[in-house]
Each structure stands twice: as structure tokens, then as C-alpha cells.
Amino acid sequence: MSSPYLLEIACNSTMSAVAAQQGGANRVELFENLEQGGTTPSFGSIAVARDRLHIPLYVLIRPRPGDFHYGSMETEIMLRDIAHCRQLGCDGVVIGALDADGEIDVALCRELVRVAGPLDITFHRAFDAARDLPAALEQIVELGIKRILSSGGHADAAEGSATLAKLVKQAGSRLQLMAGAGLNPQNIAEVAQQSGCLQLHASAKSRQRSGMAYQNPALKGLENDWIQTQADLVGALRQALDAIS
Asked: Are 34 and 228 in contact (CB under 8 A)?
């Protein structure tokens, strides 16, 4: 009997996306710049990921780090990035925007949804930065978006489980809450059960050691190692969810 829980892996590179697939992920969210919360990946990264993956590929649409209040040039960038995702055959995009008062920027999000067309849409953790989460949820429902990635407005989903449970109840069958932030093989099952979320989002990342034998000692601060999703960690997350009775 298959598990009712869907596991999405946050992947900071095409290599991470392939590892997520190997480890048993149901879906990938692809982005770059993990250290600052993620930004839109390159055209090449998306194209190669689409070629290599047979599981759904979603792409983060975020033009820069920082807040989620965007100007006209940033809006144009997001619209063009969504169009590229459609051209490359992606399954979905991950969007979100707020106005200066911490409300959902409905006008901007409506335009992003329009350009996405047939693509599935996740509203990202800009939701957690909103002033009033229940009100923001209703605005997202009105936009026709069927999924919100959230930690319940807390630093991580374990802390926000109680809030997530309330949001799940409020949403009913109108949209899915996907719990994300700080999930690991040790806590993912508990968060799933306490929050009532049937979709879980984790990065399954660890440090990848550089194969460089030489490093210029004058380049102080240059980091040769990098962070990457690991297939075995994805497998451990999948196993923890599958073990829920």
C-alpha cells in the first residue's frame, strides 16, 4: 500500500535534483542560492534537470534574496522566468509576493498565475512573512493556487506544527498545506502527524567535499566545498514517512 505522504525535496542544483530522484523523492523544487533562501536557477540548470528527471519538476520564481515586495523590473523578470519554465516543460512554479504592509500582493500574484497558465503553482514561504496567516490563506485560495509551503509562520515546521494544523483545518479541501523548514529524518514523521500535512518539504542536504588537490592560499575565504542534496538522506526521509501507521 502506497504512503499518503508526498515528499518534495528542495534542490539547490541540478545535481541535487538528480540525487533527490535517486533517493525516492516524489517531486523536486529547483532553485539556486540556498544560503539566502533561494533564487531562480539558470536556464541551463532547469533545462538539464528537465532532461534528467522523470518526477515532477517545480522551479522557484524569486528574482533576488531579501523580502518579497517587488518592483516593476523584478516583476518583469519573474514573468519571463515563468515563461521560460513553460517552454522547458516544467510541471510547476513556486511563487509569492507581498505588499509593503505584509499582505498578499494579489494584483502581482494574479499576473504571475496568468502567465503560468497550465503550470501547477505553489505559494512559497512569503506566506510565512505575511501579517495575518489566516487572511493570507483566503487570498491565496481566491487566486486559485492549490498549495502553500509553510512553517506555520515559525522558524521551522516543528515549531509551527500547531499553527499548521489550524491552517490545514481552515483550508479544508480548497488547498494543500505543505510543511517545510527544518525537517529531517528524525522529526518529519512527527511534524506530519501533528500538523496534518500530507505534503512535506525538506532539503536533505550535506556538505560535498571538493576534489581539488590545490587551493591558492592567497584566496582567503574562498570555499571549495559546497552543499548538495544526498540521496541517502532523501531515502531516510522517505522511509520515516512510509513508517507512519
From this structure: no
DSSP string for 160-171? THHHHHHHHHHH
Largest CA distance in the chain: 58
123 beta partners: 95, 148
Residue 242's CB is within 10 A of a number of other CB atoms, namely 14
The reported pTM is 0.93
Collect all residues with Cβ–Cβ distance below 8 Å to 97 and sequence separation of at least 6: 68, 69, 70, 104, 105, 108, 109, 112, 126
Tens of pLDDT, residue by residue over 117-140, are 999 999 999 999 999 999 999 999
Of 186, 90, 94, 169, the C-alpha closest to 134 is 169
**Residues lower than pLDDT 50 in the chain:** none
The tens digit of pLDDT for each residue in 161-205 reads: 999 999 999 999 999 999 999 999 999 999 999 999 999 999 987
Q: What pLDDT, on the 0 to 100 scale, is given for residue 1?
A: 56
Domains by residue range for the chain, with CATH: 6-207+220-242 (3.20.20.380)
